[in-house]
Design a protein that fits this description.
It is built from 11 helices and 10 strands. It has an 8-stranded mixed β-sheet with strand order 5-4-6-3-7-8-9-10, with helices on both faces. The longest helix is centred in the N-terminal third of the chain and has 22 residues. The protein starts with a helix and ends with a helix. Bound molecules: guanosine-5'-diphosphate. The site of guanosine-5'-diphosphate has 19 residues, from helix 5.
């Protein structure tokens, strides 16, 4: 966790430092507030949240007359936390569900998102976290669109100790997902993680496919969590993608990947606004241990150093 924090602060604190430096200027004139706005916009915070944050900061600096570096730092910390939100439920729901006949079935987590955002990697990392937590996990390789995805997932499965259920290349994703949950029930596994395909160019196809995967899995019992994987480096594009996915399936949480490769952590604020669901996990590298729960306090501390 310490290592993850260090990595987070390396990638993010230019944003926080920049804001603090601006706030600490002797004269907080219009130009400076504009620069603060630009800094937030450049970090992908989004227009409305940026305006809110700046308005609140202006008001509070004026009312409180805060000028000391510690005072400004605390003010910024508080306002960033207000913007990100500290009371959302950010746990990934992997608890058992109840099947059709009232029997316990594994917790089911669907992982969705555009190809290349880090879906398969995130599924593997999440499996590792769960197995380390003493849970038995079954993986469903329902990304039959990308040829290597099932192999990649199976490699993760072998590495972390989770069975992978896969179908023929180009097979029906919904039937693989169905089989994965069936296998999970047969094995009395704790959690079934389903990796899905994310081709965006045919929205109707995507809609049919993801909706169908979910409906078919629900023949066994409820899907506890639908995690949308978003690449933090894609900025506004990522938000457009998020919107499309939210239209086709009810997203319950966001995983923001590749946060190690960008200082644009503001996307966390923007995507939560856009979808109305919390960021639950962040990806901070390609390695097996580089997935962390998203903790607003730790994030903001890393941000402002
Ligand atoms: P998918 O097509 O969405 O399943 O994407 P993959 O899981 O294959 O990931 C695409 C690439 O992104 C791979 O090279 C991953 O190693 C890389 N990747 C995934 N998550 C992260 C992350 O948090 N940080 C970094 N730097 N790379 C990541």
């Amino acid at each position: 966790l310490v290592r993850l924090r260090a990595r987070l602060s390396r990638s993010q604190n230019s944003l926080g430092k920049g804001l603090l430096t601006l706030l600490s200027r002797e004269h907080l004139d219009e130009d400076t507030w504009e620069e603060i706005e630009d800094t937030l916009l450049t970090a992908d915070v989004g227009v409305a949240p940026t305006q809110e944050l700046v308005d609140r900061l202006r008001e509070r600096v004026k009312v409180l007359g805060t000028r000391t570096p510690e005072g400004l730092r605390e003010l910024l910390r508080e306002e960033l936390l207000t913007l990100i939100g500290t009371d959302a439920d950010r746990s990934v729901h992997t608890g058992n569900g109840l099947g059709k006949d009232g029997q316990e079935i594994p917790g089911v987590v669907m992982v969705v998102g555009v190809n290349g955002t880090g879906k398969t990697t995130t599924t593997g990392k999440l499996a590792r976290v769960l197995v380390a937590d003493g849970k038995s996990v079954v993986l469903g390789a329902a990304d039959t669109f990308r040829a290597a995805a099932a192999d990649q997932l199976q490699t993760w499965g072998e590495r972390v100790g989770a069975r992978t259920v896969r179908g023929p290349e180009g097979g029906d994703p919904a039937s693989i997902a169905f089989d994965a949950v069936k296998e999970g029930i047969a094995e009395t596994a704790d959690v079934v993680l389903i990796d899905t395909a994310g081709r965006l160019h045919t929205k109707t196809g995507l809609m049919d496919e993801l909706g169908k995967v979910k409906r078919v899995v629900e023949k066994h019992g409820p899907v506890g969590e639908v995690l949308l994987v978003l690449d933090a480096t894609t900025g506004q594009n990522g938000l457009v993608q998020a919107r499309v996915f939210a239209e086709v399936v009810d997203i319950t949480g966001v995983v923001l990947t590749k946060l190690d490769g960008t200082a644009k952590g503001g996307i966390i604020v923007a995507v939560q606004r856009e979808l109305g669901v919390p960021v639950k996990l962040v990806g901070l590298g390609e390695g097996a241990d580089d997935l962390a729960p998203f903790e607003p306090e730790a994030f903001v501390d890393a941000l402002i150093g």
